[in-house]
Amino acid sequence: MKTIISAIMMVMFSMGMNAQNRLENAKKEAMENKELILLSFSGSDWCIPCIKLHKNIIETEDFSKLRSDKIIVYINADFPRNKKNQLSSDIKKENASLADQYNPKGLFPYTLLLDSDGKVVKKWEGLPSENALAFSKEIRDLQQQQTR
Q: Which residues, if any, are the signal sequence (predicted)?
């Protein structure tokens, strides 16, 4: 009986811990590599500015280099509406938790640059006005300021 109760408690505890898994992993990676965390709130299948953000910035080579050069850890908190694009329940819960913490007004797109402790360094409400190169340069500059 004790084994069953222990097993149930472990499962319940791990479910609660899983809600912030991506952010906690990102914080750990950011701390180890002196990176920043880019957290993007999007509606990938209904929010036109979100779709433009991903197409014109996130999916570009300039942005990809931020990740490969260990400048940022990227998290996309997506809130799709179409049934065919629905996320797993774990990811939905995690995205909702991230929104509660960082996006209580429910803005889309809403992009945050965080330090390795999860503190907000910079915010972009809506579609950034910069092109991918300027957006990436701004993040590089902010990351360099953080490591001084």
A: 1-19
